[in-house]
Each structure stands twice: as structure tokens, then as C-alpha cells.
Sequence to fold (537 residues):
Amino acid sequence: MKNTKYVFVTGGVTSSLGKGIIAASLAKLLQARGYSVTIQKLDPYINVDPGTLNPYEHGECYVTDDGAETDLDLGHYERFLNIPTSQANNVTTGRIYKSVIEKERKGEFLGKTVQVIPHITDEIKHRIQILGNTGEFDIVITEIGGTVGDIESLPYVESVRQLLWELGENNAIVIHLTLVPYLAAAGELKTKPTQHSVKMLMQSGVSPDILVCRTEHEISDSIKRKLALFCNVKKEDVIQSIDAETIYDVPNFMLEEGLDDVVIKKLELSSGQKPKLEVWNDFLKKHKNPKNVVEIGLIGKYVELRDSYKSITEAFIHAGAYNEVKVKVRWIHSEDLTIDNVPEKLNGLNGILVAPGFGERGIEGKIEAVRYARETKIPFFGICLGMQMAVIEYSRNVLGLLDANSTEMNSSTSNPVIDLMEEQKSITNYGGTMRLGAWDCVLSENSKVHGIYEDELISERHRHRYEFNNSYLSKIEAAGMSATGKNPKTNLVEVIEIPSHPWFVGVQYHPEYKSTVLKPHPLFIDFVKAALEHSLR
Ligand code: GLN
Fold:
């Protein structure tokens, strides 16, 4: 059983400073020194999980093996650390209150007034320690969402205060991530916002052990000294985090600044080996020195907020580096695509990816994009809704079922080639009721995907309600589209391909969630390779 140490990461001044990347980079360095590390994110909103949030609000909803719908930062944690996360790695205020209220209804607090302190804070502290109590981790890093001073964050900061006290010195520390803005007119970096945000944190009884300062310009020693003086930390505990060309540079930046060293010292951990980052740096080198460029169209309806497709774009970065290719993404709004403008809008692409999504908006444009990729033999990759669109397109334009559709889009279509499973029909609640998490899939021998995965039994993560309607399977296969991956228990179709096309694959699952720096996803690797071949044609 390990004596788990805790690192809390809070944020000050503004949101979007990249707490998730700093947490993941620190975890990477500690992992590269030989420690077992995990990262957890606490989100202060009242949704039980982000599954019911519009991607425009919160970016992508990331899904774990155990079927948790989580914050996109968990995707960064997995991509950096190459270890899976789970429901325990993401907790929201909604989930905290839900469990406290359920306990109250069961009578677990009988006779007591249920209050934020101690009941909500006890629940938060319990959730923070779930991962530590497994005994699997030397260090648990807990990222507190939001910005210090927000009303919603107060119970979390209070829980951190209590835990720091209970766990004792050298067992838990606080890293405060803050902004040091540059005033162009004065030509100066300004420390005042950081001073105020540290004061705000101290008003809640928490003093930071380390300051990580986001900045666009180098922070001089004298500014570090000033920050140290005003914020009760030592100068070496002021860490600069300068804007990076890629998020994957940040672990090296933090290494240069010695963030891992100060953390280890404060937690009284034996310093262990120097971080081993050879594989990571090899990836970075390839990522920054591509030999070729391919352009891939990403067809989606949330393209205004690119974070909605975070895992897909990161998977392209991993697969691009693997192939020593720069993957340029052309963002294409599916609502803008029509039968007439598709040849012009998709002109010059080396690959077309039709993205996941929900609802009717933009689907006709996606179907036209599929048709264009199929007819002009551009490599095509359909993910989840993208795979469903490929089935609909094939049914309409090859089988001649002109009104083929998904019952998600048209519940009275006479050809529901994509339909709800029986068990989904009686579900009335939206939250957490889709087919979620990891499911097995058996790949057919001699199929393209079998060759790509070099395996027969795979496991991939899902997040959808609708499925390929197996009553159309024989007709569709007879017309030249094959179902080459199936769930071994339910026989649900998980993969379709067109063998006569150079690269046409649709998957009902989300391969992008499992792509990491150390293990780029085989489907993305092969798709990028096919795009490269297309570009050289
Ligand atoms: N809307 C589709 C479904 O629910 C696809 C979901 C997705 O792309 N994640 O089945």
C-alpha cells in the first residue's frame, strides 16, 4: 500500500490558463521519474456530468473505459500519461450534491441539518481520496476547475484547506496557476493580478506552495523575486509557464523550470531517477519536422469551437508524427455543404473525416461529403454519426432506398437503416443512458480493419444511442459495403468498410479517445498513411 501524496492545482485571475496541461505535464514528469501518478478533475458546475452539455458550452465530452462522460481534460491526462482514467477521475458539483441528497433521503444523516460544511465538503474530500485509497498511486494530482474567487469553487477550496490540515505537511501541496499579463503600452509584465488572486486564496485559508505563472514573455528573476515576496513563496517556487508552440512542449518547459524538483522536495519524496522522456522527445521531434503535408477535411457541425473535436485533432497529431507527416485540418461546417458546392469545398483534400454528432442539423451536408469521398475515392473515415451517415448514403445512393435515414433524424422513415435498440426505446432520461464505455468487437478476417489492428478482438469506447439496423445487413453487404466488426454478444455492427474503395472505414465507436502520444491509434495512423498515399498520387 502506497502512502499517497496529494497535489492540488488551483487557478487564478482568468479561466483557460491551461490548468489541465500543467497538471498533465507535471504528472508526465513525475511518471517519467518512476512514480505512479494519476490526475483528477473537480468541476464546479451542477450538471452531474458534461454528457448533457452542448459541445459549444464545454467542448468535447470525453468518455472513459468504464463509461463515464467526462471533462475533456481527462483526454489530456490519458494522452500524456498513457494510462486509462475512470469515473473517479472526474467529479462535478452535481454529482457531489446528488450523492449527499441520496444519503439524506436514505436517512444516513438522520436528525442532522445537512450543510455545505461538513456534508458537502466531506463528500468532496472522500471523492478526492478515492483514487489515493486504492493504494495504486504514489501521487494524486487534483485539478480544481474554475477560478479562485468564484462562488461555485468555494466548497472545493474549503475542502482543500481541510485536507491540507488533515494530511499534514509534506503530504499535500497546492500549486496555484496564475496569469502574469504583459502591458504592451508600458512594455512590462504585471504581477498585481497574481498578488490579488493569491490574497483571495489566502482569505479561504489556503496558501499556495508553488506559483506557476502563465506568460507571453520571459519572467525575469526580479519579477520572480517580487512575486515570491508578495505571495509568501520562495523564488525557486515561482515557475514560469511561457506560451508554447504545442501543448506537448510543456513537460519539457516545466522540466527546465524545475517544477518536478520543487514538488518532489516539498512532498519529501526521494528524488528518484531523472525524468526519462526519450520516447516523448522522439515524438516531438517528428511532430516538428514533418517530411510531408496532407490536408484532411473535418466535417462537423460544431466546428466554430474546435475543442468540440479535441480528441480527434490530437489523434491526428499523434498519427501525423508517427507517419512524419503534418496533418493540416480543413474545418468544414456540414451545414454549409450542398450537392452543388461539395466538389469545390472539398477540393484538394487528401482525406475526409465525418465527425460524431447529435441531431438533424447539418446531416444532409455530411451525407454529401460521404458521397463525394466514396465516388472520388478519397480516403474516408466516419466516426460514430459519421459511420451512420456512410450507411445512410450507401443505402440511398447505391441501394436506391431514397428515404433511408436514422430514426434519430426522421422517426417515420420507411427505411430506418439506423435505428434505436429495443432497450433504448423505453428510456426517457437523457443523462448517462447512451451505450457508453468500452465494448468488445470482433473483426472479420481478411478485412482492412483486421489488418490495421493486427488483432481480431478489440475493445473501443462508445457514446451513442442509435445503431446499424441489422435487418438491412444482407442487402447492404450484397451491394458492396461490408460489416467487418461486430459486437460478439449482441451482433451489433461496429465497423463498416467498402472493400472496393482505397480507404473507406466507418466505426460506430470513438477510436480518438484511445490515441495517446506513446500509442497513436492504429486507425488514425492508417488513415493518415492513406491520405499521404493519396497526396502522392
Ligand atoms: N447521434 C448518434 C447516436 O446517438 C451518434 C452519436 C455520436 O456520434 N457520438 O447514435
